[in-house]
Each structure stands twice: as structure tokens, then as C-alpha cells.
Design brief:
By secondary structure, this protein is of the alpha/beta class. The chain folds into two domains: 125 residues, Aspartate Aminotransferase, domain 1; 254 residues, 3-Layer(aba) Sandwich (Aspartate Aminotransferase, domain 2). The strands form four sheets. A seven-stranded mixed beta sheet has the order 2-8-7-6-5-3-4, with helices on both faces. Strands 11-12-15-14 form a four-stranded antiparallel beta sheet, with helices on one face. Strands 1-13 form a two-stranded parallel sheet. The protein is globular and about 70 Å long. The model has no long low-confidence stretch (mean pLDDT 97). It binds pyridoxal-5'-phosphate. Pyridoxal-5'-phosphate binds next to helix 4.
Length: 401
């Protein structure tokens, strides 16, 4: 049964892209934005921009109020205890770098950090580089055949030397929810800190960081229909208090003279310099919009559309699907066809999908691939988008095979 999206009209760029002959199916890279976000940005800039937390004047008070309101909205979106547990960064990548530098003092030579074999470079390289700086061992948890982190192997590899576990909630290549409760339990039993990369997971369904029980959770605003240049770091109070300051400048300092300084605790102590004010305000408006949707209907739509995508690919001969994708996206390769050639022909036909290593080079390598095509969905996609994709795919394969 063809699925239409009741929320499509809320995203003006979708119609604009369609007028340009484009079908946008690269949502795991970034998403289109709701009108509510455009309105909030327009309102902020049209009514007087101001810096936050430092100005006495009225525009500054308005901006600070809107900025801090957004912090509260993010906290309630994640079901954090309070707004003070939300640190704004410049993206998931910068949040993970903040952690790798801010926790560096916790590690001694020979300590272990556990990540998984499917991590995005953003949740690999900061830990890899920390391991090199401190002479630590980076332990890579392998995957089972279904693309999930292998729990038996994890039980063997996470042990008393493990000081930190950092894993993705939902893989940006394999589209599978990772077994976080079991992994976090293993880490906690060994008194290790836990970091969840929610960059993809946060976009699908609602997640409760208290129920999850991780020490830190990070995501990027732009993948959750919000503006770019903004990331979120949630931390448990006890975990946030273990962070050392890592970037220094305006507003993060309590007192300083020329030679010494005292710094603020989280969140402001980790938001040095002028933050991305309009993006924070815009994310708040985006969350208001998302909050107003029927979440069960969004889930059902995303599930139905993903099933259609998967089925259509499975029906076509020569297509190898990576892992066992559960929702949001499917990555695949075609026997005898280079992914770059296929991507080129899809692009020529106005279908925007992603080709390449998806910032997960070691994972692709372990699958014996240099790249793959990824089709990723958002709540505004519909069956017509998939039909256009499949028709472009069939045409391309006819030429290439
Ligand atoms: C799983 C995962 N983690 C982290 C990131 C990094 O996000 P950003 O580039 O917005 O910092 C991405 C982006 O693709 C991702 O998919």
C-alpha cells in the first residue's frame, strides 16, 4: 500500500527540491527543516540578535531567555533530570572530542577504551587519538552476522581494565539498534564510563537518557531536523563533574587574573565563546514542532516506508544488503557494479543518496568493501520518493549490468 506523509508539507524544502527534480533520500547525512524552524530563525534575526549570558540590555535578556528555554526543551526531549545537564557544542563530533579531551586525565597507560567495529569516525578517532596520547589500548568490539555488536565477545572484552565504553545507538551504515542495555550493564559492572553516540538514534523514536542509564549521550541538531553547527552533550551530574575544561575563553570562566583562572561547572564551563545562538533557539522550535506530532503515527510511517525500501531492494537480483537493517536506512552494493558508477547514474536522474564509506572506513573494509550506496529516510519521505528511487535504480542497473 502506498504511504504518504502527513508531515511533508511542513518541510518547504521538499517541494522546492521536487521542483528542482530532486528526490532527497540522504537523511542520515542531514535532514530538511520544518517551517517552524525557519519561522524561529526569522523571528530571532528580524527582532534583534544579541549575545547571551553577558549583556544587561533587553535584546540580550530576550536572547538569553530563548537560549536557556531551548536548553530546557532539549532536556525534556531526552528526559534528562534538568537543563543543567545539557551542554551545547558545535556538533556530535565536537561533543565527542570534548569528552576525549575532558576525560583524558582519567586514564593511565595500559587502561582500555572499548568501542565497536561499526563506529562512525566521530566516535572512533577521538578515542583512537586519546589512546595514542596516553598509551591506552583501544579495544574494538566485533559484530555478529546480523550487524549487532556481539555480546558474547563484548562480555569477554569488557573487563576491569576497561575505563570507558563508547558505542553508537543506531548504526549510520547498518541501520540496526545496538544492544545498549546489555553493553552498558557490562561497562557499569566494571566501573567504566559510558558514552552513547545518539547521532542517528535520536532521530527515530523518543529516547530516555535516565532509563538508558548512560553517563553521556551526544547528538547533532542538524540530523534531528534542526540547524547545523549545534551539538548536544547530555551528562549525568556525577559524570559531568569528572570532566576537565578543554576549551578556554569568554563566559566559561568564573574569575581570572593574568596567571590563574577558576572555571564554571557544566554547562557554561564547557561552552567557551559565543555559542551558536540562533541554532540553539532554532533547535528549541524544532523540538516544539516534533513534540506536537503523533509519535506513534511517525513510528508507523517510518517502519512502513523502511519495509518498502527493504523489500524493493531484496526483490532485485544481484543486490547485497549490508547487515540486517531494522529502520531508517539501508546500505547496499550490487554485484559487479562499482558504487560510484551507480551513485553517478542515480545523481543524474535526480535521486540524492549517499555513496562511499559513510565515515566508517574500518567497517566497510571489514566487510570487504570500499564503499556502498545508502538510502536513508525521514518522516517526510513517502512511497512516491521510493518509486522514483527504484525506477532510477532499475534504469541505472540496466546500463551498468
Ligand atoms: C553515528 C554518527 N555519529 C556521529 C556523527 C557525526 O555527526 P556530525 O558530523 O554532525 O558531528 C554522525 C554523522 O553522520 C553519525 O552518523
Amino acid at each position: 500500500m502506498p504511504l504518504s506523509s502527513p508531515w511533508r508539507a511542513d518541510f518547504p524544502a521538499i517541494a522546492a527540491l521536487q521542483r528542482q527534480g530532486q528526490t532527497y533520500l540522504d537523511n542520515a547525512a542531514t535532514t530538511q527543516k520544518p517551517q517552524a524552524l525557519l519561522d524561529a530563525l526569522n523571528h530571532y534575526y528580524a527582532n534583534g540578535a544579541a549575545n547571551v549570558h553577558r549583556a544587561q540590555h533587553l535584546p540580550g535578556a530576550h536572547a538569553t531567555q530563548a537560549f536557556e528555554d531551548s536548553r530546557g526543551k532539549v532536556a525534556s526531549w531526552l528526559n534528562a533530570n534538568e537543563a543543567g545537564q545539557i551542554v551545547f557544542t558545535h556538533g556530535a563530533t565536537s561533543a565527542l572530542n570534548l569528552l576525549a579531551y575532558g576525560l583524558e586525565h582519567e586514564f593511565a597507560a595500559g587502561d582500555e577504551i572499548a568501542i565497536s567495529a561499526l563506529e562512525h569516525h566521530a566516535n572512533l578517532l577521538p578515542w583512537q587519538q586519546l589512546a595514542q596520547r596516553r598509551d591506552l589500548k583501544l579495544v574494538v568490539l566485533p559484530l555478529a552476522a546480523d550487524g549487532l555488536i556481539d555480546l558474547d565477545a563484548a562480555a569477554r572484552l569488557i573487563g576491569p581494565r576497561t575505563r570507558l565504553l563508547a558505542v553508537s545507538q543506531l548504526s549510520n551504515v547498518l541501520g540496526a539498534w545496538q544492544p545498549l542495555p546489555q553493553l552498558l550493564a557490562l561497562a557499569k559492572a566494571n566501573h567504566a564510563l559510558t558514552v552513547v553516540d545518539g547521532a542517528q538514534g535520536v532521530v527515530h523514536g523518543r529516547h530516555d537518557v535516565q532509563a538508558l542509564g548512560c553517563d553521556f549521550y551526544v547528538f547533532s541538531s542538524h540530523k534531528l531536523y534542526g540547524p547545523e553547527g549545534l551539538g548536544v552533550l547530555y551528562g549525568r551530574h556525577a559524570a559531568l563533574s569528572r570532566l576537565h575544561h578543554w576549551q578556554f575563553g569568554g563566559e566559561m570562566v568564573l574569575t581570572t587574573d593574568y596567571h590563574h583562572a577558576k572555571f564554571r561547572p557544566a554547562p557554561l564551563g564547557f561552552e567557551a565563546g559565543t555559542p551558536p545562538i540562533s541554532s540553539v533557539i532554532g533547535l528549541g522550535a524544532t523540538l516544539d514542532y516534533l513534540q506536537s506530532l503523533d509519535h506513534a503515527a511517525v513510528d508507523a510511517h517510518e517502519t512502513g516506508l523502511h519495509a518498502q525500501l527493504l523489500e524493493g531492494l531484496q526483490q532485485r537480483p544481484g543486490i547485497r544488503i549490508l547487515g540486517a537493517p531494522q529502520l531508517a536506512l539501508v546500505s547496499f552494493v550490487v554485484e559487479g557494479v562499482h558504487n560510484a558508477d551507480l551513485a553517478h547514474l542515480l545523481t543524474e536522474q535526480g535521486v540524492a543518496v549517499r555513496a562511499g564509506h559513510h565515515c566508517a572506513m574500518p567497517l566497510l573494509k571489514s566487510l570487504g568493501l570500499s564503499g556502498a550506496i545508502r538510502v536513508s529516510l525521514a518522516l517526510y519521505n513517502d512511497s512516491d520518493d521510493l518509486e522514483r528511487f527504484f525506477s532510477a535504480l532499475d534504469q541505472a542497473l540496466e546500463m551498468l549490468q
